[in-house]
Amino acid sequence: DNNKTSANTADIQAIDADHHMHPFTNTGALNKKGARVITRGEGVYLWDSEGNKILDGMAGLWCVNMGYGRSELAEAANTQMKELAYYNTFFQTTHAPVAQLAKEIASITPDDLNHIFFANSGSEAIDTIMRMVRQYWSIKGKPYRNILISRENAYHGSTIGGTSLGGMGGMHGQGGPLVPNIERIRQPYWYGEAGEMSEEEFGLACAKALEDKILEVGPDNVAAFVGEPIQGAGGVIVPPANYWSEIQKVCHKYDILLAADEVICGFGRTGSWFGSDTLSIKPDIISMAKGLSSGYLPIAAVAVGDRIANAFIEHDDDFNHGFTYSGHPVAAAVATANIQLMKKENIVEYVGNDIGPYFQQKLREAVADHPLVGHIEGVGLVVGIALVKDKETKELFGDDTDIGMICRDHCFNNGLIMRAVGSRMVLSPPLVISHAEVDELCEKVRLCFDLTH
Ligand code: PLP
Its family (predicted)? Predict the structure, then answer.
């Protein structure tokens, strides 16, 4: 009954407040109000301990791509755990689940990115990229080629490596000093930062910023450029159409490795297996996590092409890097089952040709005319909405407002999870969302915008 549910909620909240330190959270403030207790998930819906049904417009944290409650994935874990719960892949050993997953990933990665290194989180995958590209140049006899270039407002995780590589000021201000030899250039946020420039001019200007930075630090000192195909946690920022081809030209000109952080964009989110496919990027190295297992177990990977892989293979020495759970058999079995399920249900085609375009159109029909909405940008099933103070002048809300949080709280109270990144609202629903569920999602977004303004 309801009283019992409420009592349970209060108990869990009290224990949580006493003992649980939440990530990216003002713990004191949360403890006073109590965390919402999520109890169950099915498809695109969650339930909380008070019995409320919530449409999860964020697929958890951009990860539950195949939706909640997939028994195929639970069974893969159950079977593998009973057969072989754990063994390492450090000491001249392997096992079938990790080998099969590497093959399964290689079947969907772009071009020749067929060599896979395993980690447990996106942050660890990014740390792996940072160490691997620097070690690559060391193997090539150029250890001085160790500068990594990334972008302002990029998110690459929260280990010391990921924090340093990312461009989040709020993170750089805590827990430093950061990892050295990292440089950042401007982000390709056309709507917010291009001034009078057209998208094309702005794309060129951003690529020129990369070239200027390379020339400033010396081309022979740069290991790699790293970027998310579409920035996710930075607010879902879709770069101008010419951006990546221009960036790629600059990387080629100076022989700089190109790394795509596919932690959000990978596994169908943009309507192709990888964001690099959708945006015509030809990276030398990619990171992936989240959608790799649809978030059912922690697992991440880095895929490299022959150029990098062969350098390591031909260099007769250990690569001194890895994690106890690199290629964990249970996580690997679940990830393989997840990819096979995605293939069986043609989910990538569904996002690319059907539900993705439907979602983008329906959302614009629902809210483009709203006084708060300045700009909507997105591809497939990921979208960012810039809220504006003034629709006519396109004046954005400054950092001094909490309009995003107000909107997010209206969503929270009206059965929708939508995330706020400053004054940008972002959505990234499970890829299995139906047309009727998209309709419901868009209606809820409209309602919450109306309540906010
Ligand atoms: N890279 C990108 C692009 C991400 O979006 C994230 C997480 O949101 C990460 C890396 C870090 O992943 P994790 O939180 O699994 O460490």
Answer: Belongs to the class-III pyridoxal-phosphate-dependent aminotransferase family.
> Among residues of the chain, what percentage have pLDDT more than 70?
99
Residue 379 confidence (pLDDT): 98
pLDDT at residue 403 is higher than 60 = yes
Task: Give 292's DSSP letter.
Answer: G
Q: Are residues 149 and 277 part of one domain?
A: yes
Confidence of residue 7 (pLDDT cuts 50, 70, 90): confident
Ligand 1 proximity of 428 Cβ (cutoff 6 Å): no
Closest CA to 429 of 149, 4, 41, 62: 62
Q: How far is it, in rounded angstroms, from Cα 374 to Cα 392?
A: 9
* Alpha carbon of 300 to ligand 1 centroid (Å): 10
Structural domain count of the chain: 2
Residue 373: CB atoms within 10 Å: 21
Kind and range of the H or E element at 444?
helix 435-452
Strand partners, 53: 47
In the predicted model, what is the mean pLDDT of residues 233-247? 98
Q: Is 269 in the pocket of ligand 1 (CB under 6 A)?
A: no
Which residue type, as a one-letter code, is found at position 181? Answer: N
Percentage of the chain modeled with pLDDT above 90: 95
- Domain membership flag for residue 25: no
| Per-residue model confidence as pLDDT tens digits over 266-315 | 999 999 999 999 999 999 999 999 999 999 999 999 999 999 999 999 99
111 with 173, same domain?
yes
**Would you tell me how many other CB atoms lie within 10 Å of the CB of residue 86?**
11
Over residues 97-125, the mean pLDDT reads 98
Distances (CA, A) of 248 to 15, 222, 340: 51, 14, 32
Q: 93 or 396: whose pLDDT is higher?
A: 93
The answer to whether residue 88 scores a pLDDT higher than 70 is yes
Distance CA 277, CA 273 (A): 7
Taking the centre of ligand 1 as the mean of its atom positions, its distance from the CA of residue 122, in whole angstroms, is 4
Alpha helices, H only, 220-324? 243-253, 275-278, 306-314
- Ligand 1: centre distance to CA 157 (Å): 5
Ligand 1 site, residue 155, Cβ cutoff 6 A: yes
Q: Does any ligand 1 atom lie closer than 6 A to the CB of residue 289? A: yes
* Positive or negative: CA dihedral 341, 105, 288, 35: positive
Who's near 397: CB < 8 A, 6+ residues apart?
387, 388, 389, 403, 404, 422, 423
Q: Are residues 170 and 116 in the same domain?
A: yes
Do 279 and 377 belong to one domain?
A: no
